Amino acid sequence: MVAFLKGQKKICPEGATMRDIFLEYVKQQTAAGKEITSSIEGRIVVK
Known about the structure:
Blueprint: H1 2-7, H2 18-31
């Protein structure tokens, strides 16, 4: 995936959780006036 290749050189803050990283991303994007969208893709199926 392209996103993982681009992100492999980035360093996460020590002690950061995935939740913290996602929340910071959302804060940055909304501060820049960008809309956060989501959609259900159906890639995970529970039987």
